[in-house]
Amino acid sequence: MCIAFEMLGSSVFDFLKDNNYEPYPLEHVRLMAFELCYAVKFMHDNRLTHTDLKPENILFYDSAFDLLYDSVKKQDFRYVKNPEIRLIDFGSATFDHEHHR
Fold first, then answer.
1. First CA to last CA across the chain, in angstroms?
2. Which of 101, 99, 89, 2 shows the shortest CA–CA distance to 43?
3. Is 23 exposed, middle or buried (0-12, 13-18, 19+ CB in 10 A)?
4. Which residue out of 18, 45, 52, 96 is catalytically annotated?
5. Dihedral of CA 89/95/99/101: which sign?
6. What is d(CA 34, CA 17) in angstroms, rounded to the nearest whole number?
7. pLDDT tens by residue, 25-69
8. Residues 39 and 89 sit within 8 Å (Cβ to Cβ)
């Protein structure tokens, strides 16, 4: 048996680390937060709890970026082109009736 998944980009954490911890633009944070809430609501509607939400388990759909120059900090920073995300790692997810750690 073989399980295939769509190819995804880097994690939100890895992108942030590779970008010298330069904060995401507010419009990107809004979209990522909305999509994360939507994913968690979907799980809760299906009586599941993720139990391992962290930036490493949130991947960009496509982590392609533009390189922009910050004249104040005098350095380049990465600006992700598409902040669309996917939630991953359901290995420790539990149903409502199961014990939660």
1. 31
2. 89
3. exposed
4. 52
5. positive
6. 22
7. 999 999 999 999 999 999 999 999 998 899 999 999 999 999 999
8. no
**Cβ(88)–Cβ(52) below 8 Å:** no
DSSP single-letter state for residue 59? E
Contacts of 52-57 spanning 24+ positions with Cβ under 8 A: 52/89, 52/91, 52/92, 52/93, 53/87, 54/13, 55/11, 55/12, 55/13, 55/16, 56/11, 56/12, 56/13, 56/14, 57/11, 57/87, 57/88, 57/89
Active site (annotated) includes residue 66: no
User: Cα-flanking dihedrals φ and ψ of residue 76, to 5°?
Assistant: -80, 150
For the whole model, what pTM was predicted?
0.86
In this structure, what token pair is assigned to residue 92?
């420790």
Residue located via tokens 């420790």: 92
Strand-pair category, 94-95 with 75-87: unpaired
